[in-house]
Design goal:
321 residues, binds S-adenosylmethionine, binds iron/sulfur cluster
């Protein structure tokens, strides 16, 4: 559906849990806090909402979290989501640790792609960021497994100062055929208190290693990444620079939290409490109108350059990234 600025909003990110098996320093270093089980939407509630979103023209659905795979039944949820009339693509964003366990079930459920978060391949630095050991090795295993199952994989890395020296090593995944995207640190949640690494400096470092790296009009998935290619890389490298290279005019997404709150923009807390409507006995038509109004009023752009004006106070793990 179109919002009031004429953008076609057809992409919903669904956070199915706030919980996570990692403690990334820019996301939830102290854990997620207690959310009562009954406050989180059931899969049935998510599916009812997905049907309403699809009827409004939403086509792409990404399952995220917290860590989506710590919630039992995530693969069955993917399967059910794929069957909702109007849903075209269902993908997932995960830290990858549980893919060796659930990868086959996800592939069998019809998952259309998986984005795996990995900030560096250096084990000791990754441990300092995530609070866990052996993450890089487990992710490497997960990448190989998902590719062998025929599920497209992308690697997503948040640009941090301490991982700047590791950028080219991580980009070797692209040399091996797996697209790598570098994400600018956003001042959301814990990200407010950290300084990220400048994407332009990261690009310059990559160009020193692959001098022919050049922008290329590649469309992978349904996000806003700007892609670069090199003869030395068999997959592209992307940049998602939400802060320094604002792409709000082409934004196509809204987010649904695990507690059923619809968030039209990452920067602002204003949205619609769909859980209250679901549990208040409202009809699909009434819920559809609430969604339509919230999406229609999606803000024109974020204000990350002026964090004092941001009204979003949640952690990234509660929003789903
Ligand atoms: N646990 C899953 C994972 O890590 O992929 C899914 C949820 S996580 C919140 C989704 C994405 O948000 C991850 O790629 C993570 O690196 C990114 N993220 C978290 N906090 C961020 C921040 N402040 N700025 C930019 N990206 C962030
Ligand atoms: Fe967990 Fe993902 Fe947040 Fe890391 S970024 S703490 S893996 S939710």
């Amino acid at each position: 559906m179109l919002d009031k600025y004429g953008r076609n909003i057809d992409y919903l990110r669904i956070s199915i849990t706030d919980r996570c098996n990692l403690r990334c320093k820019y996301c939830m270093p102290d854990g997620c806090g207690k959310v009562a089980h009954e406050d989180v939407l059931s899969y049935e509630e998510f599916l009812r909402l997905a049907g309403i979103f699809a009827a409004l023209g939403f086509r792409h659905f990404r399952v995220t979290g917290g860590e989506p795979l710590v919630r039992e039944g995530a693969a069955d949820f993917v399967r059910a989501l794929k069957r909702v009339p109007g849903v075209e693509k269902v993908t997932m964003t995960t830290n990858g640790l549980l893919l060796t366990k659930y990868g086959p079930a996800l592939a069998e459920a019809g998952l259309d792609g998986v984005n795996i978060s990995l900030d560096t391949t250096r084990p000791e630095r990754l441990e300092a960021i995530t609070g866990a050991r052996d993450v890089a090795a487990r992710v490497d295993e997960a990448v190989a497994l998902m590719l062998s199952l025929g599920v497209p994989v992308k690697i997503n890395a948040v640009l941090l100062r301490e991982t700047a020296p590791d950028i080219c090593a991580l980009a070797e995944y692209a040399a091996a055929g797996v697209p790598v995207r570098f994400i600018e640190l956003m001042p959301v949640g814990e990200g407010r208190y950290l300084t990220g690494y400048d994407p332009d400096e990261a690009l310059a470092a990559l160009r020193r290693r692959w001098p022919d790296l050049h922008p290329e009009d590649v469309k992978l998935g349904f996000g806003p990444a700007a892609y670069y290619k090199s003869a030395g890389l068999s997959a592209p490298i992307g940049f998602i620079d939400a802060v320094s290279h604002r792409f709000c005019s082409g934004c196509n997404r809204v987010r649904l939290t695990s507690q059923g709150y619809l968030k039209p923009c990452l920067c602002f807390d204003e949205g619609a409490d769909l859980r209250a409507l679901l549990r208040g006995g409202r009809t699909d038509g009434e819920i559809r109108e609430a969604i339509r109004a919230a999406v229609h009023n999606k803000p024109r752009q974020h204000c990350f350059e002026n964090p004092a004006a941001m009204t979003e106070k949640h952690l990234m793990s509660q929003i789903g990234g």
